[in-house]
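Ops channel
N.P.: pipeline sanity check, posting one input/output pair.
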């Protein structure tokens, strides 16, 4: 069941989304992410590192012994990914975009919980976001 938003809320959401989309840091992060996604070899390397890392982690957790050559292969791939400028730009861009989403979601959730506009300290704890709040 979908509940229709009140027009005042909908217009403020639209204004918030417009402000987010117009923000230079957001635009830069999106551009970096899109540039990465257009680089097929970089995407393939990133995907391969993530898949192999996940597979090795699952096997390790299940008690299987990992062969030294498997670990070495993963480390080599990870080093290639770490040295790849496009992959690093993508990871940084994802962090920026996720941080904005975390902050917006935090404020909205706390507003619904409290029934009033929260302060940054109420949402993220002492010192505001970035100082032990756990969202990083």
């Amino acid at each position: 069941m979908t509940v229709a938003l009140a027009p005042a809320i909908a217009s403020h959401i639209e204004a918030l989304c417009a402000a987010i989309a117009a923000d230079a840091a957001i635009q830069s992060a999106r551009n970096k992410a899109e540039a990465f996604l257009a680089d097929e070899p970089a995407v393939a390397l990133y995907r391969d590192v993530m898949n192999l890392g996940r597979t090795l982690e699952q096997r390790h957790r299940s008690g299987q012994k990992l062969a030294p050559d498997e670990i070495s292969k993963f480390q080599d791939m990870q080093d290639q990914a770490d040295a790849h400028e496009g992959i690093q730009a993508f990871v940084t861009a994802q962090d920026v975009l996720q941080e904005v989403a975390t902050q917006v979601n935090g404020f909205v959730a706390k507003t619904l919980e409290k029934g009033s506009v929260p302060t940054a300290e109420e949402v993220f704890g002492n010192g505001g976001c970035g100082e032990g709040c756990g969202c990083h």
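N.P.: looks fine end to end. The radius of gyration is 20 Å.
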